[in-house]
Amino acid sequence: MGNARRRETMRRSYYKFSQSGMSVVGLVIVVILGLAAAFAPWVAPYPHHAGLYIDFSAKFEPPSLKHPCGTDGIGRDVLSRIIFGFRSSLFLGIAVTLFVMPLGTVLGLLAGYHTDRWSGTLVMRITDVFLSLPPLVLALTVASVLPPSIWNGILALSMASWPWYTRMVYSRVTSLRNEPYILRAKLAGIGTPHILFKELLPNCASQVITKMTLEMGSVVLMGATLSFVGLGEKPPSPGLGTMLADGAQYLPVQWWLTVFPGVAILLIVVGFNLLGDGLRDLYGGGDT
Amino acid sequence: MDRRHVGMLLTVCDLHLEFVGFDGIAKVLDGVSLRVKAGEKVGLVGESGCGKTVTMKSILGILASPPARVTRGSILYKEWDILKVRKRGLPRVHGGGMSYVPQDPMSSLNPVFTIGTQMRDVLKYADAKLTGRRGKRSRLVAVEALARVQLADPERLLKSYAFQLSGGMQQRVLIAMGLLSHPELVIADEPGTALDVTIQAQILEMLDALVQEEGLALLIITHNLGVVNTLVDWVYTMYAGSIVEEGPTAGVFAGPAHPYTKALIACVPKLAGGGIGRGIPGRVPSYFAAPSGCRFGPRCVCAFDTCGLRKPEMTGVREGPGHSAACFLLEQDRTA
Amino acid sequence: MNLAGFLIRRTIYMMMTLVAISILVFLLTRVMPGDPAKLALGNTATKEMVEKLREEMHLNDSLPIQYCKWIAGVFHGDFGRSYYSYRAVIVDVKEFLPATLELVVFAVVVLTVAGIGFGVLAAAFKDRWIDQGIRVFAYAGVSIPYFLWGIFLLLIFGYFLDLLPTGGRLTYGLAAPMRITGFYTIDGALTGNWRVVGDALKHLIMPVVSISVGGLNLAARITRAGMIDNQRADYIQVAQSLNIPRRIIMAKYLLKPSVIPTVSLLGMELGVLVSKAFLVELIFNWPGISRYGIAAMLNKDVNAITAVVLIVGVLYVGMNFVVDVAVGFLDPRTRLQQK
Predict the structure, then answer these.
(1) How far is CA B110 from CA A45, A147, B114, B115, B141, in A?
(2) Would you say residue A62 lies in a domain?
(3) CATH of the domain at A248
(4) What is the pLDDT of residues A139-191, one digit of tens each?
(5) Which residues, numbered 5 to 24 in chain A, qualify as contacts with chain B under a Cβ-Cβ cut-off of 8 Å?
(6) What is the pTM of this model?
């Protein structure tokens, strides 16, 4: 009975999801980007342009058949660099999310469950303080006091992202805490870790997954901002934000140097947002 | 269009309504007909899920359509067909002639406006006689209306918000608001079921008194037979989207003709002994795949072949004037 | 009166948050590797000079003492000296802050008015072309990152169509009005210098649109969703049955309860406006505090960074406070019910 029911739920979920064309579009975009990023060396037309490569004879070429997104000041193919840029952006996003999600969720579970103890209150106070600064500013500040590298970028973004998970899981747990099945478990003497992870966590799972998807867009955006400002990874590695910043000085003549990286960032954000929205509609919301 | 509506305040004529959704089309109302005369007290009885709320909402014009869709039939207020009027024109059709007392008072008052503001707005927009008179006059009318429903300190009430009042008070406020436009028909949806039994009794008593005083017609939608028995003159029983029996309350309760009504009455635990009533075996059918023929057929102890073939018509019961039921047993009886 | 009690509680909470932020900001910026004094003086500094500067910067004291000295200074309006420009940071702040504030204030107005307005329109004309148009615009607005809006708007309106100026607050050659508030638009209006007002407004359009577009569309979407959801609510059905005309229901009965979640969410969005200003000021060459802050971060100018981040934090918390009060004002349940 369980399996049939699960299949039915999945089919129903899929139907509901596919009702919204936009959500499916989001899914498609994310999948394409993921594949492009994973297979970058094979997908990019000029993979070697992503590293050290100089060819002044081909510099500043406008978009053409040979270089669909044009070339930059040192003659590197913009399209290939964008594809590799997807790689670094998605890597950043995934790394930050993978690090922050477990941390934030666990903290939220603990704080939500132990609101009566000082540890719970302390965690929430700290979370609130971190939340009182705009995330971008927080990330910028942390990035500015550390030497620029991709790992420090990840650290900076993580510091700005974790409170959101904690706050969300916390509010979910506090509302679930007094549900009959939790009280029953407590009365039966079931230990806290089991309650936290086997009872409460699955009930937060859908919200967390939705949040993760929506956050990807924000994280990638913040990462691009960090690079744009000059606090992210160092050249010559192709970061979309760096490309944007480098290209900005050549506006408006060599417009392709900003427009295409910009559109690339846009695609990532739109893809994850649409997908996240679809998931949110599917799971019925809550306060993501 | 026949003349069944002549002299009636409300006529629902052979209403067929369905809902369109993911799981298919739910044919909820399968030919509902009922009538309310001026000054008459009518009850519409049925279990949860039988379609009585849907019927009521269609009458009031507050049913969301889509996904609801009327496929046949009409709803007439006096001589105007409500279904034919576009949403926007509806208020003008019955012009406050029909009024609604909702089931759940807690969620029926706007949470962010004071009671006074809401009542004033009803007066401003609903009652043409009062338009133009502002401020003091409408406040007086509101205070008077609140006093009529036996609420203490109406002045202070006007300045309060819904959440500051108890359930019983909210229900009274809603009744007061419903009476502001001097309606001719009051439709009450499960009046008092959201409240404690003692409060519910008070509310019902008050409703009854008001109706007598004003000479209003009352249509009560409920699943509570006790309420029906004490309050109404004429009762309709409904099952799975169609009316199965109608008639004067006393007659129907004394001698129910339809097997469903019989079973329903038998279910009620009798305070004076007799123990807990017997339930009705089986479940309400799914509207997506409703049984052909009589919808009560599958659960009926007296069912025979014809019951599954076609739907029975309302047939008069010999002993009672106006008392009729939709059952082949009666048809058989007649021809016998 | 309950409203006063509500306000007092919120104010106390805000104060506590501000203190916490100041501690956080302080800690973050003092965790820097490397010696700030040495960085400031450069490679040619001698050991004595570095030591002297360290004394002056209180770097040899323990962290809590450093914090107290710093916070005491802040209350006097003294953020220390910038180790890059050698001016007192407060002077820099006073010069650049009004520009950012002007940007943010205009954005707030645009965001709130247009956002809620679009949402109401979309809900009122649900599924007709006005609604579809607004929804597509909303998706674009929320999905296209704000700095891309900035770049695209700049490219299209600034360069290709040449309709709007491409940077700065005023056209080169036009003198700034007498400084009363620091807002060119207000100062210009106050001194009767309408040419400056018009010019300043032209310069404001693109940056304001860039930072408000995301929030605007969020507000529109949430207002629309709120209104559509609440339409099913019992109290709306009751109002309909009581013959209250549709336009009154939409404009009054549906709007107020539906706008409450929008306003709550706007709180965060408003605070974020300040952080969005960071990039937009760079793109449009806007001489505001964010641009100053980024320069400070790149130059590792500790005092300036701390000052800017603190101010941003204060603005953020301040915005949230304003929004909380607004919600309390709109929703009697929050203000009259004790938690």
Answers:
(1) 62, 56, 8, 8, 20
(2) no
(3) 1.10.3720.10
(4) 888 888 777 777 888 888 998 899 988 888 888 888 777 778 777 777 777 77
(5) 12, 15-16
(6) 0.72
